[in-house]
Amino acid sequence: MESQTPRVQAPKPAAVKKEEKISNVRGIRNAFFVIIACAIAAVCIYIFGMGYAGNFEGNDPEGHPINLAGTVYKGGFIVPILMTLLLTVIVLSIERWIALSSAAGKGNTTKFVADIKADLAANNIDGAMKRCKDQKGSVASVVYNTLVKYKEMDANTVLSKEQKLTTLRNEVEEATALEMPSLSQNLPIVATLTTLGTLVGLLGTVMGMIKSFQALASSGSPDSTELSTGISEALVNTAFGISTGAFAVISYNYFTNKIDNLSYAIDEIGFSIVATFAATH
Q1: Which of 82, 109, 130, 120 is nearest to 239 (CA)?
Q2: Report field, pTM of the whole predicted structure over 0.70
Q3: CA–CA separation, 261 vs 103, rounded Å?
C-alpha cells in the first residue's frame, strides 16, 4: 500500500497591522466633572466667602450688607447657580486655549503652510515630512499622514492615477475628520451657556423684582429692608447673567475663529498635496 506524504501548508503571510491614528489635541474629555467641580466651588464661595458675617452690619447675614460681597450674597440662591455657569465658562475657555495652542503647533501656521507648499513644489517629500514632525499640531498631523499615503501611492504600480488621487483625497478627509472633533470639543457647552447664563440671570432678576413689589404692597409703610433686598437680588443676578453670557459669547467666537483658521490651513494644504501628485504623476 502506497504511503501518503502529509501535505505541508505554506504559512500565511502576516497581516499588516494598520497603525491607529490618534489626535494630537489634548483636552478635558468629560465636561460633566468640570461643571460639578465649579458648582462645589461656587457654593463654597457663596456660603463661606460672600456669606461671611463680617460682610454685614452687626455681623448678621440677615442684616444690611456693608460691602460688595455682602450685596452679592443678597442675590439669593440664584447667585451660586450663576457663579457655577460663569466658572464653567472660564475653566472651559482656559482648557480650549491650552488645547488649541497645542493644536496650532510650534511656529506660525501660515508660514508652515507656505513652507510645505514650497517643499511640494520642489518634490521634497521627505523634507516636508520632517518639517511636520518639527512643527507638531493638528495641521502638521494631517499633512504628515497624507504625505505618508503620498509616498505609498508614489511607489504603487497597481492602481491607476485616478484611484491614487481618490486615495489621497480620502486620506486627507480621514485625517481631518480625526482632528476636528478634538478641536471643537466642549465648545457646544460654552455656546449653550451663552443663552443659559442670560436666562438664569433674567430669572433671578424677575424673582428679585417680585420681592421688591411684595415689600411695596405690604400693609402700612413699605419694608425698606425687604425692598432693598429685592432690588439687590434683581441687580446682582442681572449683572451675573450679563457677565456670563457676554464672556461665553466672546470665548465661543474667539475659539471658533481659531478653529476656522486651522481648518482653512488643512484644506489649503490638502488641496496642494493632491494637486502636486496630479501634476507630477
Answers
A1: 82
A2: yes
A3: 11
